[in-house]
Amino acid sequence: RLYKCLKHFFFSGTGCERTAGETKLLLDYYQQYFSQIGPMKKFKNKKARFAKIAANITEAVGVPKTGDQCCSRYKTVKRQKRSAAAHNNKSGNSPCEVSFEDDIAKIRWLDDSLEPEELRDNFGIVSIKRPPSQASTSQASRSQELTSQGSTSQELTSTTKEPEPKKPKLSASRMLEMNHFFDEMSKIQEEKEKKNEPNTRMKEESVIKRGKNRRSAFGKKKQNSIKKK
């Protein structure tokens, strides 16, 4: 009889508030063993998984539990969560607390076949619940996109050539000074050429004379050789 009372207290709706810790423990084990069902895995089926969860809870709280009891309790928590969520989604209803919402959401996120839960109001979809991993991933990708956009704009700014400063225009007085300077330089160059001209002529004349002397000497040698023959 005591076992039946404990069973009713633990798994009935009236005892839910007092057994929140045990229910939380059940959901934690369910989440832990969620992906361990199937061939070459820890559990052959869901029944074996709930049997293991019941054994863990029995060892933790010291009260005997069965796999069927744990399975029934899990379904009850899910049903209560669905009804509370449907109540909160209806306009005009005062919001009510959803028991174990985070734990059920974590388990739901482990199932890839389920679509993300949508929160609606009178105007349609307000938001979509996503697992923390997806939320952090989307946030990280968004920040990375903003960072890449900032670096790209910075590169474009750095590669853009700055306009070259305009050269100052020369004034009329400055132009006159420069023209005078070039005139003086040309006069000096002409004087140097005039001074070097006599020396150049003398060198040319001496070269011509040496050439004539060589030709005359060569002619004399040739005549002497002919006479000897």
Automatic annotation (TrEMBL):
<feature type="domain" description="Myb/SANT-like DNA-binding">
    <location>
        <begin position="19"/>
        <end position="98"/>
    </location>
</feature>
<feature type="compositionally biased region" description="Basic and acidic residues">
    <location>
        <begin position="180"/>
        <end position="208"/>
    </location>
</feature>
<feature type="compositionally biased region" description="Polar residues">
    <location>
        <begin position="144"/>
        <end position="154"/>
    </location>
</feature>
<feature type="compositionally biased region" description="Low complexity">
    <location>
        <begin position="130"/>
        <end position="143"/>
    </location>
</feature>
<protein>
    <submittedName>
        <fullName>Putative e3 ubiquitin-protein ligase bre1a</fullName>
    </submittedName>
</protein>
<dbReference type="InterPro" id="IPR044822">
    <property type="entry name" value="Myb_DNA-bind_4"/>
</dbReference>
<feature type="region of interest" description="Disordered">
    <location>
        <begin position="123"/>
        <end position="229"/>
    </location>
</feature>
<dbReference type="Pfam" id="PF13837">
    <property type="entry name" value="Myb_DNA-bind_4"/>
</dbReference>
<feature type="compositionally biased region" description="Basic residues">
    <location>
        <begin position="209"/>
        <end position="229"/>
    </location>
</feature>
